[in-house]
Design goal:
Length: about 190
């Protein structure tokens, strides 16, 4: 099912972008969305994970320390995987597409690194780890991840399919570390 959704989004990326630019984008929202975009920043996410680790260390709570540790590892892992995929695929960002650049293929050039969204991948990786540790907060964690992803579309940094693919990747990476945590607790 996720592959079908991704293919549909790929087919309608330019229409979705056009809709957002014409019907949603406004000066009033710009500052607000720029602020929301910070939730997808790897540095902000890493700081959250390190605060959890520090709190776990100071309070001598292994579960808090482990959540921060696996959250940080998930963010970093998602970031590394995203960068590899981005540069293998070499998809132009929306603003590059405006310039007529539409080729795909391996590239290290700036602007040819749209797919998948790193903000989405790291946001969803952290949300998966935090949701496993604190299930009552899962709606909040995933809502923040969605907001970070949607902000990338609004700010014209990514197409909808980039954000969706990043979210899927983040969930897979985060879930991998959640399962690893569960295995460590069992042994």
């Amino acid at each position: 099912m996720p592959i079908i959704i991704l293919l549909i989004l790929l087919a309608f990326d330019h229409q979705i972008r056009g809709f957002v630019k014409i019907n949603v984008k406004s000066e009033e929202w710009e500052t607000f969305v720029q602020t929301l975009n910070k939730f997808g920043d790897g540095g902000v996410q890493a700081a959250i994970a390190m605060i959890l680790m520090l709190a776990g260390h100071l309070k001598k709570k292994d579960s808090l320390l482990r959540t921060g540790k696996f959250g940080l590892i998930a963010i970093i892992s998602a970031g590394i995987i995203v960068q590899i995929i981005k540069h293998i695929i070499g998809r132009p960002r929306p603003t590059m597409a405006d310039k007529g650049i539409s080729s795909l293929g391996p590239s290290l050039s700036t602007g040819l690194d749209s797919f998948p969204s790193g903000h989405s991948a790291s946001s969803f990786a952290l949300a998966a780890v935090l949701s496993a540790a604190y299930p009552k907060g899962r709606y909040i964690f995933y809502s923040i991840a969605v907001i970070a992803g949607v902000s990338r579309i609004y700010l014209d940094s990514h197409f909808a399919s980039d954000v969706f693919a990043g979210a899927l990747l983040g969930i897979v990476v985060g879930t991998f570390f959640v399962n690893r945590t569960i295995k460590q607790q069992s042994s």
